[in-house]
Amino acid sequence: MKRKFILVIAAGLFLFTNNLFSQEEENTFKPWGKVNGTIFSNFHHELFAEEHQSAFAVERAYFGYEHFLSENFTIYLKLDIGSPNQDSPYDILKRYAYFKNAALSYKKDKLTIHFGLIDLYHFKTSEKFWGHRYIYKSFQDEHKFGNSADLGASVKYDLNDFISADFTIMNGEGYNQLQTDNTYKSALGITLNPVKNLTARFYVDYIEQDEMQTTWSSFVGYDFNKKVIVGAEYNIQLNNKFVKGRNLNGFSGFASYNITEKWQIFGRYDKLWSNTIEGEPYQWNINKDGSAIIGGVQFIPYKNIRIAANYQDWYPYAKNIENESFFYLNLEYKF
């Protein structure tokens, strides 16, 4: 049944894109390309601990290239140099280079199609409002509710100025993993802009192996004419990692205030919690459940350079795990 479903989707995509290709008219467009790069680095120092962890670090480096084949078609590549996962200090010490993007994009009027190793829409809305990816990931990305990129195909259509819908089918393993089974994840997102500067997004995904896993997410953000930006999201994941009855919940709220064009203050609060399974004394994810507070000031000395002095802490709910409090000096520089 699954194979028939995938074949139907593949055939539909082929016929649809073939029709789009045939409608492309030759014009005087001259293909061109551009190179881009982004680096996240920091200095951090642990506070209120017997052994103060302190170091300079380069957390991430991206190197990309975009080639515009025509007014509608674009090929884009992005190389990600960093740790594939950061669940332990040993992972943080490792550095690998792998593709985060390797895809073909088609865009015309209200329609956008991506195929290959693509960014996923459900991280981008909240990440754009948060605006400080170089300091801290968006909530879903940080707590592994999903992957920021994956192998697959996505279709986005802007119905009008107020509403757009996007559908994605993907492997589900993420951008640094190969497909290891015949399981696919499907996702649907709806983005609303009911009034100027207000954005709301609703998202759901579904993937099934031994058990079904599904993620539901809602986000709302408001931009007060680039002066004040606020946002909040709530997420729930049922049957985390395909284990029946294991559910994750998460909330994130943030705000930023632009004092001048170069100076900004910002803050954020996150909370991650899990349920207690019948017969167990604690929440199943108690060792990772907790809350985080981030706050600081950002300075932009020059275009494409951002510097932020900030405080970050993590308060675990497990009583046998110590709090983590850090001072960070984060930098983002790009071209």
For the largest beta-sheet, the strand count, sense and barrel status come to: 16 strands, antiparallel, barrel
Within the largest sheet, what's the order of strands?
1-2-3-4-5-6-7-8-9-10-11-12-13-14-15-16
Number of domains: 1
Shape assignment: globular
Count of strand segments: 16
How would the blueprint of this fold be written?
Elements: H1 2-23, E1 32-47, E2 54-68, E3 73-82, H2 89-93, E4 96-108, E5 111-119, H3 121-130, H4 139-142, E6 149-158, E7 163-170, E8 185-192, E9 198-208, E10 212-224, E11 228-238, E12 248-258, E13 263-274, E14 290-302, E15 305-316, E16 324-334
Antiparallel strand pairs: 1-2, 1-16, 2-3, 3-4, 4-5, 5-6, 6-7, 7-8, 8-9, 9-10, 10-11, 11-12, 12-13, 13-14, 14-15, 15-16
Would you give an account of this structure?
- This protein is mainly β.
- It has a single domain (33-334), classed as Porin.
- The chain has 4 helices and 16 strands.
- It has helices at 2-23, 89-93, 121-130, 139-142; strands at residues 32-47, 54-68, 73-82, 96-108, 111-119, 149-158, 163-170, 185-192, 198-208, 212-224, 228-238, 248-258, 263-274, 290-302, 305-316, 324-334.
- Strands 1-2-3-4-5-6-7-8-9-10-11-12-13-14-15-16 form a 16-stranded antiparallel beta barrel.
- A hairpin with a 3-residue loop joins strand 10 and strand 11 (228-238).
- It starts with a helix and ends with a strand.
- The model has no long low-confidence stretch (mean pLDDT 89).
